[in-house]
Write a structure and sequence with these properties.
CATH architecture of the largest domain: Up-down Bundle
Distance between the termini: 25 Å
Number of domains: 2
GO cellular component, one term: membrane
Protein name: Major facilitator superfamily (MFS) profile domain-containing protein
Oligomer: single chain
Strand order of the largest sheet: 1-2-3
Transmembrane segments: 27-54, 66-84, 120-141, 153-174, 180-200, 277-296, 325-343, 350-368, 374-397, 409-432, 438-458
Radius of gyration: 23 Å
Low-confidence stretches: 3-7, 243-257, 310-318, 473-478
CATH superfamily of the largest domain: MFS general substrate transporter like domains
Membrane topology: Multi-pass membrane protein
Domain Major facilitator superfamily (MFS) profile: 29-463
Number of strands: 3
CATH class of the largest domain: Mainly Alpha
Order of helices and strands: EEHHHHHHHHHHHHEHHHHHHHHHHH
Structural class: mainly alpha
Length: 478
Amino acid sequence: MMGGGGGGDTFTVDDALLTLGFGKYQYFVLAYAALAWVSEAMEMMLLSFIGPVLKRIWRLSAKEQSLITSVVFIGMLVGAYSWGVIADKYGRRKGFLMTALVTTLAGFMSSFSPNYATLLVLRCVVGIGLGGGPVLCSWLLEFIPPPNRGTWMVVFQAFWTVGAVFEASIAWAVMPTLGWRWLLAFSSIPSFGLLIFYLCTPESPRYLCLNGKIKEAMTILDRIAKVNGTEVPSGTLVSDDDVVASDQDSTPTKRHKQGALTTILKLLSRELIRPTLLLWVVFFGNSFSYYGLVLLTTELNAGRSACAGHKVKAEETDDVNYKDVFITTFAEFPGLIIVALTVDRVGRRLSMAVLFFICCVLIFPLVFQQSEMVTTGLLFGSRICITATFTTLFIYAPEIYPTAVRSTGFGAASSMGRIGGMVCPYVAVALVQGCHETAAIGMFEVIIILSGVSILLIPIETKGRKLSDDVKQKCQPV
């Protein structure tokens, strides 16, 4: 609670959330965001299952198989930035409504693809929809009180793992019997749930407050108070912009909706350009490594068997070793436990850097040919580390940016990650199938090390900090 320019008591959205606490209302918001995260995880994880099958059925080359994954990331590259701009300009709800519509329709229709070209187009459109994931993260983040932010964002990220494990389970049950089309159809079901419950979702009070819609923001805060059994603080609701202006004895300026160019210029402003560019590097490396390790799980042992001269044996086996994929997917759970223990104690940057470097140590032995058991074990350990960095990064990135550019900044960084996901199949699939396993693992090593160094160079630690609406207030170095 603080004094305003007019002498009366004022409070910000963060002050209100601290008073209202994390209660039943936030559980509903978390449940909706979690459903979206499960949906995105399932649509992404199925790529490691359908590629090898379609390669055999449609007689695809290694590069054509890799393109099935890459086109999804091309779509996400477009969607991550576009939906972020829409969410910052028109609201979080409109942003994730459009993403849910695109993902649901294109995801379901892709199960009817008559040929390779049609599948590529539809999966690219699915990718455009999936690019809206950062909008959901920003929306959820803006409902959580600062002391609970790290913990509950870890809980939210856990639903990605739930979706990944669920997809591995469905693939194991469906693919050998019903085939890949049914897997695509089943994987689109959670997205339909997002459309069904959309009307119940609220707009972010922080977004409304920043855009001068104080009455609407207060209506949502009053609703949170009623559901949680608490009370909104007394006084006048203001944004952080107004607080800063009041502290500087200046009149709060009227806010206007900003265009895409204005938003990008803010991301590249003196206060934000360093963390923005470094975040782009980290997102590229993290996505490249995460999705690359997923693909390596299905490719490494099979590729080495073929390169060793056992091609007939490899062709007679299943398209995918579902057991190995299922086992390594469970590595995400200990990764989440590590994040829960470190994110609010050690801090975001240091914990990510350490985990990146441990991941490098674990995948280095894969430069040399290992037994299937050792390979699976090393990939399991690497997946633990990269899942932990992935989870922490999705907590850390939106915390860096002020409300006015949060979705756009997070979306732009996520777009760089999509480029990493776009490139990784040509390393994890094409290089391995071309018998260049050592070169593939070497590229993973270099990119992961670069990511670890880059995260340490970002001059902001957000552990324990409040979210802000003001660029200069938010981005002071630690």
